[in-house]
Design a protein that fits this description.
Blueprint (H helix, E strand, L loop, with lengths): L1 H36 L3 E7 L6 H9 L5 E7 L3 H9 L5 E5 H9 L4 E6 L2 E2 L2 E4 L13 E4 L5 H12 L8 E4 L5 H6 L5 E4 L3 H6 L5 E5 H4 L6 E6 H6 L1 H18 L4 H7 L7 H10 E2 L7 H13 L9 H4 L10
Parallel strand pairs: 1-2, 1-3, 7-8, 7-9
Antiparallel strand pairs: 3-11, 4-11, 5-12, 6-9, 6-10
Helix pairs in contact: 2-10
């Protein structure tokens, strides 16, 4: 009899224990599920390690976002970045606006929501080049034929009585340009910073023209987002642009703290960074229609694009207009 009672009590205790464990498991499952539903959206933005993307670096360093997490993804070339953007592996990018326009023309739903910077492109030459005419028959490097840098070269030649065909434009990776100039393989180049400053700071090259001397208010790099991201996750897109614009205003300080934060994303000597910052601006990042139209006119004139996307179709100022 005692054995039966003990056996019954043991079965009862086991039953209670199993019920308790089941209850704990159920509660744990709900908690885990709740945590997953509250996870923030990760916004993935592509960039190349250049001075023109500094607002992105500063935004990422702030880490104050309420509704999203930011992941910056570094690329080694513009084609790699464009491919990631076109296939939806990233939500946006700081990139050459002309490449984004070309992708838009090919049917990729992209929107330019802000500038990457203002000014900050220089036409650098060897010390033996004293005028634009001295470049006749010489090699001059550009990063990509679909770039504002190529248009700057075209305009500089045109304004000084030379044709584009009078020189030898060649495409080179930006990081290779300072060495190519120093070795005499090219006589000049125009490219994103800090690669212009890299030659000038060590006296291996000189500034023949600043970009605003050739083409005032030229548009070079832009912050581009995928259209579906803006449409489906507008609140997050708005918050992202809010922080981006504020980061640009902060970057305009160009002090030691900004240089330190920027150095986490690009390895640049201090004197090169300082010189590069002197040429570039990060405030007033709204894309103006008249500046965009001048860009499209140049693209058509050079035969780079027959039908560039219109301002209304490509530029979305609705986000930056709401930044307080």
């Amino acid at each position: 009899m005692k054995k039966i009672v003990k056996s019954g009590m043991l079965m009862l205790l086991v039953g209670v224990l199993l019920i308790s464990l089941a209850a704990c498991g159920s509660g744990g499952s709900k908690s885990t599920s709740g945590d997953q539903s509250n996870e923030k959206r990760t916004v993935k933005i592509g960039y190349l390690p250049i001075t023109h993307a500094v607002p992105l670096y500063i935004e990422n360093e702030q880490k104050k976002y309420q509704n999203f997490n930011l992941e910056l993804i570094k690329f080694g070339s513009w084609p790699e970045l464009v491919d990631a953007l076109n296939t939806g592996r990233i939500d946006g990018a700081s990139m050459l606006v002309t490449l984004a326009m070309k992708a838009k023309e090919q049917g990729i739903d992209l929107k330019a929501v802000a500038l990457g910077h203002r000014d900050g492109n220089v036409l650098v030459t060897a010390h033996n080049i004293n005028s634009v005419q001295d470049l006749k028959g010489k090699n001059f490097a550009i990063p990509h034929k679909f770039s504002t840098h190529n248009i700057l070269l075209y305009q500089m030649l045109k304004q000084n009585g030379l044709r584009y065909e009078d020189i030898n434009p060649i495409e080179l990776p930006p990081a290779e340009m300072p060495a190519a100039l120093s070795e005499g393989r090219i006589e000049g180049y125009v490219v994103a910073e800090p690669f212009g400053a890299a030659s000038v700071a060590i006296n291996k090259g000189k500034v023949l023209f600043q970009d605003n001397q050739v083409w005032k208010n030229s548009i070079d790099c832009a912050l581009v987002l995928r259209g579906e991201f803006i449409e489906k996750e507008n609140e997050i897109a708005q918050e992202f642009v809010n922080y981006y614009v504020k980061a640009g205003n902060l970057a305009e300080k160009k002090d030691e703290s900004i240089q330190k934060m920027s150095s986490n994303y690009m390895k640049v000597q201090e004197n090169v960074m300082e010189l590069s910052f002197k040429w570039i601006k990060y405030d007033n990042l709204k894309i103006q229609e008249e500046d965009y139209k001048e860009l499209t006119t140049n693209l058509i004139e050079m035969g780079l694009q027959e039908n560039p996307p219109s301002f209304a179709d490509f530029v979305d100022n609705s986000l930056i207009d709401k930044v307080k």
